[in-house]
């Protein structure tokens, strides 16, 4: 089986996230993908943190009804900082015969040498890199040239979608509509739980 692993804060999850993981599955022939909300990212705090459980539930609602996607509690239930290498080690031990694909954007892929145990990451999973308008592949290839396993990266086309979780949170604070930026179930959850210091409008 070919399994995608798509991690992030997802604060909140938006349609750009969902299109990214959908295109990875479609273009790389993945059988399914795990959406893995981080508990404690290693490099910075989660901005406007509503709590990991809220972020998990928004992810769960975002993918409900999609047979390809499943939300994983793997990082939320593990103590300490959420390192990608630990997540991949855990998945490899649970499903050793599964081919893992770590789904990342081009910027994240180019920064992989600065992650914890990057060569181990590349030995556990292939990088599945979102290539927006053909801009990612050259920079990623150069950045990973000195890492063992960097040449195993696979690229998939990703439409340029100018949506960010930061922008969604700002719109909530300013009481602007977020309909069409996030799934309806996510917008309803934000409104129901009064997240991000505003009143989400669907």
The termini sit apart by 38 Å
Largest sheet entry: 6 strands, parallel
Low-confidence stretches: none
For this structure, the CATH topology is Rossmann fold
H/E element order: EHEHEHEHHEHEHH
Give the tally of β-strands.
Answer: 6
The fraction of residues assigned to DSSP E strands is 15-25%
- Enumerate the strands of the largest sheet in spatial order, edge to edge or round the barrel: 3-2-1-4-5-6
CATH architect. name: 3-Layer(aba) Sandwich
Sheet/helix structural class: alpha/beta
Global shape: globular
Helix share bin: 25-40%
Round the mean pLDDT to the nearest integer and report it: 93
- Domain unit count: 1
In short:
The protein is α/β, with parallel strands linked by helices. The chain contains eight helices and six strands. Helix 2 (52-63) runs antiparallel to helix 8 (184-192) and helix 3 (84-94) runs parallel beside helix 5 (118-124).
What does this structure look like?
By secondary structure, the protein is an alpha/beta fold. The chain has one domain: HUPs (Rossmann fold, 3-Layer(aba) Sandwich). 37% of the residues lie in helices and 17% in strands. The chain is built from eight helices and six strands, in the order βαβαβαβααβαβαα. The chain has a six-stranded parallel sheet. Strand 5, helix 6 and strand 6 form a beta-alpha-beta unit. Helix 3 runs parallel beside helix 5. The longest helix is centred in the first third of the chain and has 14 residues. The radius of gyration is 17 Å and the shape is globular. The chain starts with a strand and ends in a 10-residue tail after the last helix. The mean pLDDT is 93.
């Amino acid at each position: 089986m070919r399994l995608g692993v798509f991690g992030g804060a997802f604060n909140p999850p938006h349609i750009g996230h969902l299109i990214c993981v959908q295109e990875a599955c479609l273009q790389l022939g993945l059988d399914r993908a795990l959406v893995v909300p981080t508990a404690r990212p290693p490099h910075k705090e989660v901005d406007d943190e509503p709590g990991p459980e809220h972020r998990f539930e928004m992810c769960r609602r975002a993918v409900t009804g999609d047979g390809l996607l499943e939300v994983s509690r793997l990082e939320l239930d593990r103590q300490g900082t959420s390192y990608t290498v630990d997540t991949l080690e855990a998945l490899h031990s649970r499903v050793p015969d599964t081919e893992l694909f770590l789904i990342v954007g081009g910027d994240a892929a180019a920064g992989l040498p600065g992650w914890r145990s990057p060569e181990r990451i590349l030995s556990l999973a292939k990088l599945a890199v979102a290539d927006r308008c053909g801009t990612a592949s050259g920079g990623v290839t150069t950045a990973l040239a000195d890492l063992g396993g960097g040449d195993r990266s696979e690229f998939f086309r990703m439409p340029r979608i100018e949506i960010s979780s930061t922008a969604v949170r700002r719109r909530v604070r300013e009481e602007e509509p977020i309909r069409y930026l996030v799934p309806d179930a996510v917008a309803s959850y934000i409104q129901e739980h009064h997240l991000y210091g505003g009143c989400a409008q669907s």
